[in-house]
Specification:
alpha/beta
C-alpha cells in the first residue's frame, strides 16, 4: 500500500506515516483514520511524522482542503505534525503555517527523520514545561 502508518517507538508517543510513490486521496483519508485509531488507543500526547519524501501527490483534489479535513478530525491527544519533504516544500509549508491560524501552530516541516525527532523533542519540552 502506498500509504501506511504505525508506531515509531515502543512508548507509543510518535506515529510514523509513510507515503510511497503514487497514492490517492482515499488512501490519504484511510491512513489518517488509522493514525487517529492509534492515537486514541493511548491516554497520552502523540506526535506525528509524515514521510512524504518518496511520494507523488495526486493530480486531482485540493491538498489544502483535504489536509484541513483530516486536521479537523485529529485525535484530541494529537501533538504536532512534522512533514518530511524536500527543502523547497519545507519552505512552502513554513509559509503556509503563517496563513492557517487554526492548524499552523502544530505543523512543522523537516528534511530528515533526525530533524523531525529533534523538532518533536523541542516542542515536547515546551509542552512539559507548561503542564
Amino acid at each position: 500500500m502506498p500509504a501506511n502508518c504505525d508506531w515509531m517507538d515502543a512508548s507509543k508517543t510518535v506515529i510514523l506515516v509513510n507515503y510511497e510513490g503514487n497514492w490517492t486521496w482515499d488512501e490519504f483519508f484511510a491512513v489518517a483514520d488509522r493514525g487517529r485509531e492509534l492515537a486514541n488507543s493511548v491516554p497520552h500526547r502523540v506526535d506525528y511524522i509524515l514521510d512524504m519524501r518518496h511520494a507523488i501527490q495526486p493530480n486531482k483534489g485540493s491538498t489544502m482542503t483535504n489536509s484541513r479535513t483530516v486536521m479537523a478530525k485529529r485525535a484530541a491527544n494529537s501533538g504536532i505534525f512534522v512533514t518530511l519533504t524536500t527543502p523547497f516544500v519545507k519552505v512552502m509549508l513554513n509559509v503556509f503555517k503563517n496563513f492557517d491560524r487554526e492548524h499552523g501552530s502544530i505543523m512543522y516541516a523537516a528534511t530528515s527523520i533526525d530533524e523531525a525527532k529533534a523538532l518533536i523533542a523541542k516542542v515536547q519540552m515546551k509542552y512539559i514545561a507548561k503542564v
